[in-house]
């Protein structure tokens, strides 16, 4: 059984095997979680992302997919980059958000990661409503068979923490 846990804080400070990055499809960095990971992890992560772009993702990493790199100077061993969907009121993109969680867990399992930290993917610049994102994230992780032993949701502020706490308890 995978244990779901919750902490308030920064994804960059987590003592886990892998941290999930809410990346953008360019893989070349951005704000929010992405910016924090690159800032703290150092240039090795960006170099690995550039290599991935050159070798596999010339058109960018598609939304809902996930790929791993080194974690550079972070405590974690790997960063698993995934691209969340931008919230849309007119189109149901929840399967893409679920896919981010499933694919990140699949990659984590392949790496042999036993502990994985997730941010609240798509709830920042991509504007996904927090309650709905928390529902999709927790339901998907619970429904995905994986060798990962702990999935830790890392929430940056009180409100996000409370919303996830209502789901994990
Ligand atoms: P997205 O583009 O997928 O919306 P963001 O990085 O903009 O991703 O935001 C995702 C969520 O992560 C937001 O709820 C934001 O408040 C939160 N966040 C921002 N910085 C950090 C951090 N260092 N650690 C964990 N969560 C963070």
From TrEMBL:
PANTHER family xrefs: GANGLIOSIDE INDUCED DIFFERENTIATION ASSOCIATED PROTEIN 2-RELATED, MACRO DOMAIN-CONTAINING PROTEIN
CDD domains: Macro_OAADPr_deacetylase
Pfam families linked to this entry: Macro
Organism of provenance: Streptomyces albidoflavus
Lineage: Bacteria, Bacillati, Actinomycetota, Actinomycetes, Kitasatosporales
Domain spans labelled Macro: 1-169
Protein name per Swiss-Prot or TrEMBL: O-acetyl-ADP-ribose deacetylase
InterPro entries on file: Macro_dom, Macro_dom-like
Coiled-coil stretches noted in the UniProt entry, renumbered to this chain: none
Domain of life: Bacteria
């Amino acid at each position: 059984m995978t244990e779901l846990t919750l902490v308030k804080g920064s994804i960059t400070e987590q003592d886990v095997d892998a941290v999930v990055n809410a990346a953008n499809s360019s893989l070349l960095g951005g704000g929010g979680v992405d910016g924090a990971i690159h800032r703290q992890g150092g240039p090795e992560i960006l170099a690995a992302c550039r290599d991935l772009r050159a070798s596999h993702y010339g058109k960018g990493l598609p939304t809902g997919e996930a790929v791993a790199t080194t974690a550079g100077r972070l405590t974690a061993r790997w960063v698993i980059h995934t691209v969340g969907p931008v919230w849309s009121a007119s189109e149901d993109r929840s399967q893409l958000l679920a896919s981010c969680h499933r694919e990140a867990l699949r990659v984590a399992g392949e790496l042999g990661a036993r502990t994985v930290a997730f941010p609240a993917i798509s709830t920042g610049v991509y504007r996904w409503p927090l309650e709905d994102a928390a529902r999709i994230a927790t339901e998907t992780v619970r429904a995905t068979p994986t060798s990962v032993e702990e999935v830790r949701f890392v929430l940056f502020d009180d409100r996000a923490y409370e919303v996830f706490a209502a789901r994990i308890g």
